[in-house]
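Shift notes (night). Ran CBS domain-containing protein while the centrifuge was going.
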Amino acid sequence: MDKVTESRMAIAMARQGGVGVLHRNLSVEDQANQVDLVKRSESGMVTDPITIHPEATLGEADALCAKFRISGVPVTDGDKKLLGIVTNRDMAFETDRSRQVREVMTPMPLVTGHVGISGVEAMELLRRHKIEKLPLVDDAGSLKGLITVKDFVKAEQYPHAAKDAEGRLIVGAAVGASPEALERAQALAEAGVDFLVVDTSHGHSGNALSWMAKIKSSVGVDVIGGNVATRDGAQALIDAGVDGIKVGVGPGSICTTRVVAGIGVPQVTAIYEASLAARAAGVPLIGDGGLQYSGDIGKALAAGADTVMLGSLLAGCEESPASFSSSTASSSSRTAAWARWAPCSPGARAGRTRRTATSRPTSPPTTSWCPRASRARCPTAARWPTCCTSSSAVCARPWAMWAPRPSRRWSPRAASSGSRRPASRRATRTTSR
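Came back to this:
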């Protein structure tokens, strides 16, 4: 789903015990960079920390900190020898952003730790010296890792976070079923992605199955295949070697697959049928789409799904990579515009024709857009830590996750005339799929 999950949403979901799947309507480099951002957001120890050269400018250091959302960067030479560290405090009062980092950094000797230091020892050094970052160096003084106090704080704040063996947040990424998918999959694997999702609307086809097998054999990470809606489809994915199966052809809130292709199976039936093959093979099953009400998730799990994939339920959250817009609708509910786009060629985001979920386009679709494009509305919600606990995220609609404040302009007279509408409900979030 475009404009639902990028790095911010993936980080927020992993901290709550879920997993985010980065959409594939990004360039290979951008998607790999999103994986890197998630992996660097938290870790027991950063084994490959971001560094900067002493001759770089403060402007470059500031941009680096902003990109990775960090408060400081170790300064190293060409041989990775630690020379010092530059932090936001060093740069806060510098007006000349062209000055070199070496002029304002805190130089060696710094408080450092040895390679293999325990978490207890690292925390004691951070506490004793009242510092936030602990560089790890070897006997030659080369930087080998970095431990930050933020990681200890986050571990206490989010005890149920989904993390890998190295203490980093888990993240997945979507790829297609085409020659470009192999290059994308390899780049994502190098960036540290934990699993790949072969993203196709009809996974029970020769082309899709062929590419799933190729991706699985060429990349050393788990591969989830989909989407299917029958027992035979699930068995075909199992035979192709996938590690997980995604079920759902057309149940999504704005999906038009059933309308365009004329195929599809009711979601509970599809999950049950697919589970007959998945359980026998020990392959986990994911219910994807059609989860609009609190009971839908329970039905999916009862029918045989091991977990579910959410889209519109999360599209209105602040962490989704979408822009806010103002709504002039007369409805009293707080809503968000959610456009689902399906570009057929690079650069198609400058396209023209749209199709809404309630009406046909006023002009024939242009070649820039696939017929799956649609438009719908979803409610906005607060930030993940505020509105979505591990239970509310899967058991409540987003409009049940926030408490709007009445407009200061409201008066009893306005209410009696039927014009009451909290001003806070006018904000909308535009997202794409």
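Residues 326 and 427 are 5 Å apart (CA to CA). The chain has 17 helices and 17 strands.
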